[in-house]
Amino acid sequence: MWETIIVAPFTNALLMIYKLIGGNFGIAIILFTILIRVITHPLMVSQIKGSTKMQEMQSSKEWQEIQKKYKDDKQMLSQEQMKYYKSIGYNPLSSCLPSIIQIPLIFGLYQSIIRALAASPLQLLTLTRSVYPFFQVGDLVPLNSKFLWMNLGQPERIYLFGYAIPLLAIIVAITTYIQSKVTMPPSTNPRDQGAMMGKMMTLYMPLLLGYFALTFASGLSVYFIVGNLIGIAQYALLGKVNWRALIPGQKPAPALATRKK
Known about the structure:
mainly alpha, disordered C terminus, 10 helices, 261 residues
């Protein structure tokens, strides 16, 4: 199932783009990333709407009163929370589904990059079995894995003054942090669990993706960086980027709570 739905289509899409643009695997990854972002754009819009609803909920005096009333009864608080979700038309999955979907995409892309850059007879055999019948694999392999200063099939390092600097891993961590900060909805409610979790993710995700970039093939790092930049651009086009979040000490603007009648 994983092979059929994720890895094989990703591998073939990368090979098709690679062939169409004349044999530049780095550009193929960039174009593939843009394609994935376009396809998942409706999910991102759904995430934004869900996050806005959550922000309104956490700023609502009615919800804050419910939290105070049932602060010692977790079961009753959970029941009232679900009722309140229903009353304002909020689906908790809408704000986390795009992030969940990104996980199989990341691992699928990593496997696809490694498979497409077949370097051994066994890997070449696996690639041959993965490609669709209309592809002439012999005309494509071996793929050109060089892009700028990188070998896309290997972890990236740049040598300065005798030291190996993981430049891409640093850029991945920075762009992931910036994207998390400027796209996270502000909250004025100190009991806002969603905001607290968002702050934790703002710290953990850059470290996690930075570790992936440090350890795995640099083609995955290219995907991360381009994806982060496109994500920020998408939010900016929708008017949802909070640039003030990058300034230390800035207080979020209060949100107006709305309740669905």
